[in-house]
Write a structure and sequence with these properties.
Length: 465
């Protein structure tokens, strides 16, 4: 595309040409490169998170406890010297003197061992759900950090390139202004154009510093989840994945029951299910206290020969024991009542959680829809109108009806519109990431997975902060 402006200095025309054609020039100059992708970053975070490792270790511990809970208590063995005479301490003097070896075993109350094992299994399941929840939370937080850092990095790169070209054109204008011979009608506009370009250059420098600050803040937080070797790796910015809510979640939005069914697959809900089941196991365990605890005993008594050398018969004893529930009545009733109240409290929390999940999802969905509407407004109404205004200013400048400042103002207005549009797109992606937290069917990504990176550019301009 070639632009001709009559009645204006050639240097000003060159600057206008660069400003108007810069998005196309930048796209043509872009080259694909390697970098740290979003899925790869998520994988690193999931592998290096201490909280996930801790929950996995807790799950293994609870499973070992569950297996150990099914064993009976150890039997007891006793070795006694019984009825020794104190006058001679002779083993053969008295007929009742004996060496007794006994064994006893206490039996568990009712089904208490199975219930203890069941409760430990439920605690292991709770740790597993804690892992799933932590993975979702980590995926969400790391994605938001990556997106923020990637956007700032891309905006910083493109702003620096824009600044470089603007500085080059300002240098051209400055040389031609100094080499102008004498005073003419264009001397005033030339000086104004030079000052205007210098002002815009300083503004872009300030914007570049702001973007660098934003990138460093987001990147330092993101580096917490990266290996040391990846802390300085640039983020991959070339490709644009589609940040959209899961279809199953979107399809369930019109129906509260369908949406509740989807949310009941969430780890937060599974946690409450485990807590309710654990409270129910506590009720049954408390009821086992009303059942008798039995024990069995057996012993063998060895006796020596009498004083005359006659053999004496050895003794064998067997028996059972049972505790008397004399003081269990009211105490156990109160234990059972307390366990019932704890289960009811967990059920109430479960109902509250479902309300909170429904409210949170619907709020994020409403925000997502409004952001999409705003994005469509930018694409279909606002940006085309800004483009028409820019074209009108260009035509007017070419016919000497407007000055260079009007062109610069129109170009910057278009650039600012593109920036606002891409900032809105970033917020739309963030909302979609937050909706992903509630979607079913989540699986942790592998750190070696190929990265699908969010795009840093669009057909409407350059994203900047």
């Amino acid at each position: 595309m070639m632009l001709f402006f009559t009645g204006r200095h050639p240097a000003a025309q060159a600057i206008v040409f660069v400003l108007l054609c810069w998005p196309a020039l930048r796209v043509l100059a872009a080259e694909p490169g390697l970098g740290l992708g979003l899925e790869q970053t998520r994988g690193y975070a999931l592998q290096s998170d201490p909280a996930l490792r801790s929950q996995r270790q807790l799950e293994q511990a609870y499973r070992q406890d569950s297996a150990a809970s099914r064993y009976w208590p150890n039997p007891k063995i006793a070795l006694n010297a019984q009825n020794l005479p104190t006058d001679s301490w002779s083993f053969e003097q008295e007929p009742m003197t004996q060496i007794q070896l006994g064994i006893s075993q206490m039996l568990p109350r009712g089904d208490s061992l199975d219930l203890q094992a069941q409760k430990q299994s439920l605690m292991a399941g709770l740790s597993r759900e804690n892992q799933a929840l932590r993975a979702r939370e980590l995926r969400r937080e790391v994605s938001l950090l990556w997106l923020e850092a990637a956007r700032a990095q891309a905006a910083e790169k493109l702003t620096a390139e824009h600044l470089q070209h603007l500085q080059q054109q300002a240098a051209v204008l400055n040389r031609r202004y100094r080499n102008a011979s004498g005073l003419n009608a264009d001397s005033g506009p030339q000086q104004q154009d030079l000052l205007r370009v210098e002002l815009e250059t300083q503004r872009i420098r300030e914007r570049l510093l702001n973007l660098q600050q934003q990138y460093q803040a987001a990147r330092q937080r993101l580096n917490e989840w990266l290996p040391p070797g990846e802390a300085v790796t640039a983020l991959a910015l070339e490709d644009a994945p589609r940040f959209e809510p899961a279809a199953e979640l979107v399809n369930a939005m019109p129906d509260d029951q369908a949406l509740a069914a989807v949310l009941m697959q969430h780890p937060l809900w599974a946690q409450t299910e485990n807590r309710v089941a654990s409270a129910a196991a506590d009720i049954e365990l408390a009821r086992q206290e009303d059942k008798a605890q039995w024990g069995i005993q057996a012993s063998y008594g060895y006796r020596g020969d009498d004083a005359m050398g006659n053999d004496r018969a050895d003794f064998v004893s067997v028996g059972v024991s049972v505790d008397l529930p004399l003081f269990n009545g009211e105490r156990n009733e109160r234990k059972v009542a307390a366990s019932v109240r704890r289960r009811e409290a967990e059920q109430t929390r479960q109902q509250l959680l479902l309300r909170q999940l429904l409210s949170a999802v619907r709020n994020e969905w409403a925000q997502y829809q409004l952001q999409r509407q705003r994005l469509e407004f930018y694409d279909q109404t606002l940006l085309p109108q800004i483009s028409r205004q820019l074209q009108a200013v260009k035509n007017s400048y070419g016919q000497d009806r407007d000055d260079f400042n009007d062109v610069i103002r129109a170009v910057m207005e278009r650039l600012n519109g593109d920036i606002e549009r891409l900032n809105l797109l970033r917020e739309l992606h963030k909302t979609a990431i937050r909706l992903e937290f509630y979607a079913p069917g989540f699986s942790a990504p592998s750190p070696a997975a190929s990265a699908a990176q969010p795009g840093m550019t669009s057909g409407h301009g350059t994203e900047q902060e």
